[in-house]
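Q: Given only this backbone (192 positions), what sequence would you predict?
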């Protein structure tokens, strides 16, 4: 399983920082990478040099986490031609008591999505493993449930449950969109 680094655009809001903390608490082998004032390429190179295989950059709009870009860092830095548009978000602090459970060692996906591309993007975003339930039953794990809220519009709802079936992490409404990526540097053109 590859290491995942979550970071933000420059000058993130408190809600975006909290969202990253929530994600890191439920995604195995993940870390929050403070961006500071560094540019995107320097931040991605730094993650690659630290051994991360995937980078997730979360951008904010009007104070809310809004647009998620994914990068492969294995051979060369390469943006994945799909992005995640966050349509709704409930942070864990909004519904559960203080104090966090232990970070899971693995996560599994239970999905009713009928689109294999969407499932693969979610697996990359969430560090999903393909291990069987039997192999992980003695480990700390989180189950990610994915289902369509609006199939025609492609709106997906995600929720995270720990091994005791208690809600953990954020609740997210999102949409996966295809993008066109320019080869030079990391500039991109939205292809929504």
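A: Predicted residues:
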């Amino acid at each position: 399983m590859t290491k995942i680094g979550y970071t933000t655009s420059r000058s993130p809001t408190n809600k975006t920082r909290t969202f990253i903390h929530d994600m890191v608490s439920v995604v195995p082998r993940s870390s929050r990478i403070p961006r500071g004032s560094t540019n995107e390429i320097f931040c991605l190179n730094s993650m690659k040099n630290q051994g991360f295989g995937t980078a997730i950059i979360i951008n904010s709009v009007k104070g809310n986490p809004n647009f998620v870009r994914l990068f492969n860092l294995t051979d060369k830095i390469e943006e994945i031609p799909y992005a995640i548009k966050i349509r709704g978000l409930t942070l864990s602090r909004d519904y559960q008591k203080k104090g966090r459970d232990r970070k899971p060692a693995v996560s599994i996906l239970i999905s009713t999505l009928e689109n294999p591309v969407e499932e693969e993007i979610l697996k990359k975003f969430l560090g999903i493993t393909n291990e069987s339930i039997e192999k992980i039953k003695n480990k700390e794990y989180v189950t990610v449930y994915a289902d369509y809220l609006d199939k025609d519009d492609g709106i997906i709802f995600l929720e995270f449950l720990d091994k005791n079936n208690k809600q953990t992490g954020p609740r997210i409404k999102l949409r996966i969109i295809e993008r066109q990526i320019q080869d030079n540097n990391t500039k991109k053109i939205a292809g929504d």
